Amino acid sequence: MYPDLSARRLYPKWWDHQWFLHVNLSKAINRVLTVYAQPRAGQVVADIGCGRKPYEPLFRERGLKYIGCDIRGDVDILLQPGRPIDLPDNSVDGVVSIQVLEHVWDIEWYLTECYRILKPGGWLELSTHGTWLYHPAPTDFRRWTRDGLVAELQQRGFKVEGVEPVLGPLAWTTLFRLLGFQEVLRKIPLVGPVILLPLICLMNGRMVLEERITPASMTAAHAAIYVTLSRK
Fold first, then answer.
1. Beta strand pairing status for 65-70 and 44-48?
2. With 0-12 CB in 10 A as exposed, 13-18 as middle and 19+ as buried, what is 179?
3. Dihedrals phi, psi of 13, to nearest 5 degrees
4. Alpha-carbon distance 185 to 126, whole Å?
5. Best exposed site among 19, 101, 155, 221 by fewest CB in 10 Å?
6. Strand ranges inside 130-191, DSSP E
7. Which of 89, 146, 153, 86 is nearest to 124 (CA)?
8. CB of 211 within 8 A of CB of 167?
């Protein structure tokens, strides 16, 4: 269906069961970058916990120098939990952490290192889960309220400038049900896939409507994901 992971995250298909999530998450990441970070071409960005680098194109297309860092895989810098990241103090303009923090046990080490490598005035774009299903990759330790996530960042010296909620409670409860249906139907030979495709399209349309009618205050306090922008 997709040539690579970046295509699925940035340009998901309508019939993808996580279409609404990926569309809204990539929009929020772009919006936070544009409104709060305002990066300039030539600046250096380190993606701490980059995985297979699905969001690298978002930063490359802005003319940023991208450094992928993770504990394994095809990365520029190999991370060793508990040890300093192989970057000098005050050396990067931005740090990216997209859907990583919930998988990190030692948050103190992780956020302190993000702070250390940032230049004064540099920015951290971090997204993680508010309300979401358990999803180990290979581990999954935490969820946050909006206030709790802001406090975690402020406690490590960051000044939080923006918080963007992604998926309010009406939409994410529908998405959770769709994920459940998908798990069941894909195991039923022949009939399952035939039922699943129109169901995905129907539920995706329902989420669009539900997100539009959910009060902004409710989404802000009960989001599935929060995208934040903080400065050193």
1. parallel
2. middle
3. -85, 150
4. 34
5. 155
6. 159-166
7. 153
8. yes
Is pTM beyond 0.90? Reply is: yes
Report yes or no: 179 and 128 within 8 Å, Cβ to Cβ: no
Q: Which residue has the tokens 């774009």?
A: 125
Q: What is the side-by-side strand order in the sheet with 118-129?
A: 77-78, 65-70, 44-48, 92-98, 118-129, 225-231, 159-166
| 53 phi-psi bin (left φ>0, alpha ψ -120 to 50, beta other) | left
Tens digits of residue pLDDT in 193-226: 999 999 999 999 999 999 999 999 999 999 999 9
Question: Is residue 212 in a domain?
Answer: no
Question: What amino acid is encoded at 166 in this protein?
Answer: V
Can you give the CATH number for the domain in which 151 is found? 3.40.50.150
